[in-house]
Amino acid sequence: QLRLQEAGGGLRELGDSVTLSCRGSGFTFENHYVRWYRQAPRGRFEWVSWISHYSSQIQFGSAVEGRATASRDNSHSVASLSLHLLRAGDHARYFCAVRTETRNPAEAEHK
């Protein structure tokens, strides 16, 4: 059974940094782009980042561009997202996700 387990986060001060992790199981982790989304307290859902199979491509949403880094360790089936210089607008619930369909995720992303 496909499973993603997130960790990290918690309360942070403005200007601090935070690292979130996402561990996959039940599927071949390296075969999937990993995406990050967030949902603000008022319910707005926003794409944050994606990272390709072997980290050759990484993209970020405009709200975090220049303040975020993403990485993955396929040998441990873990992806990470770090946010720096935290702002009030970063207060949200964060989710990691993978696609289970076959079309190119880079082409399908965020449309």
What are the low-pLDDT stretches, counting only 5+ consecutive residues below 50?
106-111
Listing every helix as H and every strand as E from the N terminus to the C terminus, the arrangement reads EEEEEEEEH
- Strand element count: 8
Strand order of the largest sheet: 1-2-7-6
Number of domains: 1
What CATH architecture do you see? Sandwich
What global shape is seen?
globular
Radius of gyration: 14 Å
The main β sheet shows up as: 4 strands, antiparallel
DSSP helical segment count: 1
Structural class: mainly beta
Question: How large is the share of residues in beta strands?
Answer: 35-45%
User: Gap between N and C termini, in Å?
Assistant: 28 Å
Level-1 CATH class name? Mainly Beta
Provide the residue-averaged pLDDT.
91
CATH superfamily: Immunoglobulins
* Helix proportion: under 10%
